[in-house]
Amino acid sequence: MNSRGLMKSKSIYLAASLLFFCAGDSRAQTLYGSLVGSVTDSAAAAIPNATVEATNTGTGFTKRARTDERGGYLFNDLQPGLYDVKVSAPAFSTFTKTGVQISINTIVRADVQLQVGAVTENITVSAQASVLQTDRSDVNQQIGGRQVQDLPLPGMRNFQALLKLVPGMTPPRSSNSDFANPQASLVVNTNGSSFSTNNTRLDGAGNTYVWLPHHAAYIPSADAVETVNVVTNSFDAEQGLAGGAVVNVNIKSGTNEFHGSAFEYHTNSKLRARNFFNVGNRLPKNILNQYGFTIGGPVLKNKLFFFGDFEGTKRRQNASGFGTLPTDAIRAGDFGAAGANIYDPRTGSPDGSGRELFPGNRIPTGRMDPAALKLVGLLPAQNLTGDSSNFFYSEGLQFNRDTGDIKVNFNPTQRIQMFGRYSILDFFIFDPQIFGLAGGDPAGGGQPGNGSGRIQSFTLGATVVFTPHFLMDAHAGYTRRSDAQTALDFGKNFGLETLGIPGTNGTDIRESGIPRFNISGYSGYGNLSTSSPSFHIDSQFVYNFNFGYTHGSHNLRWGVDIDRQHMNHWQPEVGGYGPRGGFNFTGGATSLRGGAAPNRFNSYADFLLGLPIDFGKSREEFGVMSTRGWAEALYIRDQWQTTRNLTVNYGLRWEYYPFATRDHRGLERYDPATNQVLLGGIGNVPTDTGVEISKRNFGPRLGIAYRLHQKWVLRAGYGISIDPYPFSRPLRDNYPTVTNSQFQGSSSLEPGGSLRLGIPVIPRVDVGNGVIAIPAVATTNTLDKVFRRGYVQSFNATAERELGGGFTGRVSYVGTRGIRQMVFININAAAPGTGAAGRELNRRFGRTADTRAVTPFRTANYNAFQAHAERRFANGFQFT
Fold this sequence. Notes:
Elements: H1 3-21, H2 28-31, E1 33-40, E2 51-56, E3 62-66, E4 72-78, E5 81-88, E6 94-102, E7 107-109, E8 112-113, E9 122-126, E10 139-144, H3 145-150, H4 154-157, E11 199-202, E12 205-206, E13 225-233, E14 246-251, E15 259-267, E16 286-300, E17 304-323, H5 328-331, E18 343-344, E19 356-357, H6 370-378, E20 391-413, E21 416-431, E22 449-467, E23 470-486, H7 494-498, E24 516-519, E25 525-526, E26 534-551, E27 554-570, E28 582-585, H8 600-609, E29 614-620, E30 625-641, E31 646-656, E32 668-671, E33 676-679, E34 692-693, E35 698-709, E36 712-722, E37 738-744, E38 771-773, E39 780-783, E40 786-787, E41 791-804, E42 807-826, H9 840-845, E43 851-872, E44 878-879
Parallel strand pairs: 1-7, 1-8, 6-9, 11-14, 24-28, 34-40, 39-43
Antiparallel strand pairs: 1-4, 2-3, 2-5, 5-6, 10-13, 11-12, 13-14, 15-16, 16-17, 17-20, 18-19, 20-21, 21-22, 22-23, 23-26, 24-25, 26-27, 27-30, 28-29, 29-37, 30-31, 31-35, 32-33, 33-38, 35-36, 36-41, 41-42, 42-43, 43-44
């Protein structure tokens, strides 16, 4: 069976499985919490067959268990919340511990000592706020909902801002433009690992931004977050598809009581100081409003609950800065007062020797290019003196975003728990260009014009208890992002019809708009963003099935993770010219060989003459760039209570990342031995182009937790995590999926063509039998034919103590060792000191473009001592 057939079979199997199990992504311990303990008498002897009940005080849902021969009990599928734990046994008084806080991905220990007496006698105590991590060996930290709501969250009020409280994490920072990241996701590095290897999950659903994997795809309102759990080292075998941190975010759920809130946060620039370089005395506008509400409660008491929230975000601001425009004299072609020599390219030799000066350093009007003159006529006048940084701009920016979540929990019986969540984010962004109709840089530094889109996240989950010792949980998640970004002149063939430059716009409306004009020493004109316009539809499908079985002192779990990522993009940004074409003016056409080096006045003279030194155009050959990536994993682990005070956690995880494909065939691979590109699935080329992907990605996990004393815990852990970086992202726009035509003169003083003649038409690529030659100027990425994915070793030794007064202190030695981490290596790089002639592919095939290989590379080490103190309050607030 070929790869497409195999994937189709997998999809059918998964769909059938989901229907069968009525659910579908993550794992019991990442979505739920566990409660363990021992029941003894006053002489510390075990009490077997005692009845233990854990009741969620918010929903009334009760779980029951009986102690084993060691007096131990375990609940490993409790929904987050406050619980009352009731223990009863014949001949002993009933004991109740109230206010036991259960959080996602944590194990809480509640040991109980029963006193001899009648069962009707009740002893009730309140649980302490401080909780030691007694039965896990990973480095794990909780950020509670009260922290998220009450601590300062700068900017867009993103819970990720609080990740700076987690030892080993770098301060969260912004990345990418508003259009690329309207959810305002922040990026962090964890214990020296790449920020692209963190794994953020929302209610168990995969929450990765497929195109930019260092971002979370969806960020909920801070007021909707119940708990954030962060694991940074020595993962349990149940957790994977990550090399840095696993961040589990839990949206609030409804309870038997109605709860709600309304909020508004307003910031503006009234109290800010005026920037010294700002022109004028008025403060630039900078207003940010965030407002919304939350509401949750019962639909059917003790059975069915709901929670919903909405948050609106409106930002209005002025972006200002400086640009460099030509003076009136320069616009007219008069360089007499510029102090520069402007040579006539029609004189002398083509290599730039023997050229003569334009009389008076002035270009005759009849020699100026019509397209250049039209652009000059659209430019605003300079509003500051001088011939550099002589234009101050101040433009209004808009940012609109609406987010919302709806979550439903259903507990039909004592053995079945189900939930579903749907989240949505809509956005609109406007970023004008600084020169109006003449284009130029976006004022806000993002993408020019309008950007809009929608992000949706959906998850279903269920837990089924078959017997007191055997359960199953299954989850399915889906995340979809669709967006479009276009300049204000989208739909107008400005380059072809207004400027009259052949070969710029095409028959596809996505190639419309003004071309790119880059003039060295001056602010550029046109649409300078080669990545504009763009149209994206990204999807992530995540499936997970887990089984748990307890037998005596052993708690076994095993399961499967499947993650599928789709990208469908139109964004031909390879090559630096863009889909409308681009022209670079560097001054060589009006300079003299052997004379002074070209300066910015020469560059502008080149522009007025319409003589670019190089130019070209990027094009998508097959209508859309599509990729399909898979990640598959199996795991098994045992949590063994070897003694009353010692817990050993050991397991094995296996992960496999097949070579990605297109939606209709395989990906491409460049062969540096033959200078040819292999197109997977065409002709006799196999779908994987012959790439050998290792299937031996095993990650053993081992940890111990020893309760030295009631107030002391010693822990140590070790694990191997496979580098999860996806193939599909770096290989998205391989040749010939995106082609770039490039034209340049034989030297830096000879123009590559002219605006009058425009960009020659390049024939479409003929894929033939799937093995094609690659042009000398084409850029591409490739993969090693034999590919061994890298991995991360993580280990820790931790001492944790309850300090009193609700405080807990922790000291850890944490280390990571990244082995063969994935990087880009330029396989056509020149040897030191040899220049372009020293490039290997240049010598063999005349390849002038850079070709990068995605390959495992070297080893990185990180070692640190980490100290952490925390106080938990009865109201759920944490001080860290």
